[in-house]
Amino acid sequence: MIELRHLKTLSALRDAGSLVEAAERVHLTQSALSHQIKDLEDRLNCSLFIRKTKPLCFTSAGQRLLTLAEEVLPMIRNTERDIARLAGGETGRLNISIDCHSCFDWLMPTIDHFRQNWPEIEMDLSSGFTFQPLPALVRGDLDLVITSDPEDRNGIIYIPLFSYESVLAIGKRHRLIARKCIHPQDLAKETVITYPVDQNRLDLFTRFLDPAGVEPAAIRTAELTLMILQLVASGRGVAALPNWTLHEYLQRDYVTARPLGEKGVWCTLYAAIREDQKNSEFMVDFLNTAKEISFSTLAGIKSA
């Protein structure tokens, strides 16, 4: 009565917290997902979760199936990986560049997990802040680039990992704390704190300030996320950061945050790879692992 697709669906439902987001993660329509769950409940003659609860609340039967999913799905994944390795005898290299200051927190567990499963793959890691990583990817010096700024280049494809909201971090006594959302003109008199990268690679400028023709009063840079948030908390300026980066600090009531504009500024993080590597077993496994760990550890992200 219980199929692998049911376990994958319930895992996605638990991680996403809603039918809409879970449907996106398993590549089904919301109607098809609801039908699949209802079909399973009819087979088992019991409900698996309580409708219209937020966050989603699973019944005892649902919890038991989630426990089964946690045991079975990794076993299936590991077996598929082993068979692929045996079939292809694949060895190779994975040189990664990160064009994203906030990505280390989730990328490191991804690399650790991947290294355990593919010990024969030679790995290297570098930041893309001091050179242009995409031309290096085209040349073959790199194999994968994590970026939110895709550029159209021959032979390069972009695999969406997830979408995130860029929000404005402000101090708890800041004058903008009374606003429900931030408008571009609100930042005309503010010091904006950013990572030390070109403005044309920052979502705050390319997707929010520049289209409105607004420039902040001053720009200050800091290398580390913690340093940026310390300056924000001390009233030295404001900073636009990914929602997942801010989650821990918002929980600790260290700073507060407001959306950029009424609809918010949503961005997508991509893995850029060469087209000739898109079907490589270890590359496919790395990308799947990156997505799984991101959705299990990062708050506020969505399927892209």
Q: What's a concise summary of this model?
A:
The chain is an alpha/beta fold and 304 residues long. It is built from 10 helices and 11 strands.
Outline the structure in words.
There is one protein chain. This protein has helices at residues 4-16, 19-25, 30-44, 60-88, 104-117, 133-139, 203-212, 225-233, 243-251, 281-297; strands spanning 49-50, 57-58, 92-98, 121-127, 144-147, 156-170, 191-194, 218-221, 239-242, 256-259, 265-274. With 304 residues, the protein is α/β, with parallel strands linked by helices. The strands form three sheets. Strands 3, 4, 5, 6, 9, 10 and 11 form a seven-stranded mixed beta sheet that branches. It is globular, with a radius of gyration of 22 Å. 31% of the residues are buried. The protein has ten helices and eleven strands. The protein has three domains: 4-86, Winged helix-like DNA-binding domain superfamily/Winged helix DNA-binding domain (Arc Repressor Mutant, subunit A, Orthogonal Bundle), CATH 1.10.10; 90-162 and 267-302, D-Maltodextrin-Binding Protein, domain 2 (3-Layer(aba) Sandwich); 163-266, Periplasmic binding protein-like II (D-Maltodextrin-Binding Protein, domain 2), CATH 3.40.190.10. Helix 5 (104-117) links the parallel strand 3 and strand 4 (121-127). Helix 1 packs across helix 2 (19-25) and helix 1 packs across helix 4. Residues 2-59 form the HTH lysR-type domain. InterPro entries: LysR_HTH_N (IPR000847), LysR_subst-bd (IPR005119), MetR_PBP2 (IPR037406), WH-like_DNA-bd_sf (IPR036388), WH_DNA-bd_sf (IPR036390). It comes from Neptunomonas antarctica. One of its GO terms (cellular component) is cytoplasm.
